[in-house]
Amino acid sequence: MIPRVVLAAAAVVLLLAPWPAPLSLAGAVTLVGAAVAVWAVRAPGSLAPLVLLATAVVSWLSAVPDPGLARIAAFAAAGYAVHSAAAISAAVPAGAPVGATLLWRWVGQTLAVLVIGWSVVAMTALVAGQPGSAGLVVVGMLAAVTFVVLPAVVVRRRRP
């Protein structure tokens, strides 16, 4: 139940982060996103989380001309929280209890990814000086891939 509540809360933040005018294309996309968010909470193993993320990105791109770094970080965190919560919600049946060990491991991994992501964005923003530039995005993506792939390679080599 907890992952689905987190999924719903993250979906609300994700859809409200662009804060579009209600009578606009972005507002209409956000309303569609709200319906998709309900679908995602009810069926997290379906395509609903992907559609939710896509509608949120479309709404963001059409409503936010010049976001600040904090707003970008909040939007990205909500997007990752939707992804992460949908993944665990899809693996655990709706009425089944989630063990404390699994829940804490999921929370720890989610927070670790968010902290690493925010750190990479902060470092590249300091280096590049222009948040949102193409160079910043490429450097950030390369750093994020390195932080994700390197531990995965090390863990695989340790297993017999």
Question: What keywords describe this structure?
Answer:
single chain; 160 residues; mainly alpha; 2 domains; 6 helices; 0% strand; flat
Task: Describe the 3D structure.
This protein is mostly helical. It folds into 2 domains: 1-95; 99-160, no CATH class. It has 6 helices and no strands. It has helices at 2-16, 25-42, 48-63, 69-91, 100-128, 134-158. Helix 1 packs antiparallel against helix 2 (25-42), helix 1 packs antiparallel against helix 4 and helix 5 (100-128) runs antiparallel to helix 6. It is flat, with a radius of gyration of 17 Å.
Give the arrangement of secondary structure elements:
Layout (H helix, E strand, L loop, with lengths): L1 H15 L8 H18 L5 H16 L5 H23 L8 H29 L5 H25 L2
Summarize the entry for a quick read.
The chain is mainly alpha-helical.
Class per helix and strand makeup: mainly alpha
Biggest sheet statistics? none
Number of strands: 0
Instruction: Indicate how many domains the architecture comprises.
Output: 2
